[in-house]
Amino acid sequence: LGWAFYQKGAYQSAIDLFQEALRLGEKNKAPEDPTVHYHIGLAYEKASQPALARQHLERVLKLSPNYSSAADVKKILSQLRS
Following DSSP, what letter does each residue of the chain receive, concatenated? Predict the structure, then answer.
């Protein structure tokens, strides 16, 4: 559902849902999902919150260095640092 909000440009709603997914994962002691961090990082980037975007995108690479979208993550991180 968070991704649907993201695609519609409702970034804050997307962020709220992605954060809830992270909280539920923690509550259920599930391993962190790099995809959730990736999506929330993208949403923060679109919502003009680069520090939070960086935090979540860096977490993606820490959790899964060979993440399927690692090249995109690195590209976005590079742009955020510029």
Answer: -HHHHHHTT-HHHHHHHHHHHHHHHHHTTPPP-HHHHHHHHHHHHHTT-HHHHHHHHHHHHHH-TT-TTHHHHHHHHHHHH-
User: What are 14-68's pLDDT values in tens digits?
Assistant: 999 999 999 999 999 999 999 999 999 999 999 999 999 999 999 999 999 999 9
Q: Confirm or reject CATH 1.25.40.10 for domain 2-81, answering yes or no.
A: yes
Sign of CA dihedral 24, 27, 30, 34: positive
The tokens for 77 are 């991180």
pTM listed for this prediction: 0.93
> Between the CA of residue 56 and those of 7, 10, 16, 66, what are the distances in Å?
18, 18, 14, 16
